[in-house]
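> tool_call: predict_assembly(chains=four)
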Amino acid sequence: MNIQFKKGVLEICVLSVLARKDCYGYELVGEISKRIDISEGTIYPLLHRLKDVGYVTTYLQESAGGPSRKYYRLTEAGRKEEHEQKEEWMRFAASVNALLEGKNDAAD
Amino acid sequence: MNIQFKKGVLEICVLSVLARKDCYGYELVGEISKRIDISEGTIYPLLHRLKDVGYVTTYLQESAGGPSRKYYRLTEAGRKEEHEQKEEWMRFAASVNALLEGKNDAAD
DNA sequence: AGTAAGTACCTTGCATAGCAAGATACTGTG
DNA sequence: CACAGTATCTTGCTATGCAAGGTACTTACT
């Protein structure tokens, strides 16, 4: 898988999963990896960025068989951002597809 | 437009346009910018990379109203790469869309 | 002649995000 | 007690895109 393709996209993936349910980092790796490989060295810095800009808040919760988990929850700003980034991704992907298919009319 | 989304994608865009016709750098900026913003500071290094790895060859051609143009032509390796990267992009985009739509079954 | 705009090529330095590799620490199993 | 699985984190590296700048040719206007 072309690593470069993932740049920026993993962020909207994380936001999108969190829009459906609160998750902890390790869980997110598993969820997203069903579709797209993502490593722990990517997810944790990403989650910290999202917290820094106020798209998520965190809370700790103990786990049965392991260390306690840090759950991430979307804020209202995060929910709005999720919506906007999703739309932007859709527009972008449509533009790329049009280019790859050789459609020359910008109205497509 | 999220700059990060373009990482890696502009390369397949360039290969795809060149698969249809030979182009010079300045022309490629115009062609691709119909759909996706791309700057000259991106295209020239990219074209040089493509030449270094043998996906394109170049030839000079004089121009009526300006300096001579350096045209880029896909090699066989470049054509094969165009095909493979296009398929990879399609798979990737489908994975992202599935994730954003919350489809949980990896069979989708 | 001089100057500006459009064409066409190029480079340098910066910002960003993903990853491999490693560190830390908790729990349950052999 | 060691090991595997869970769970968090950091450091150093890599790749790509961009802004900003430079060079040089041609045409049009003053």
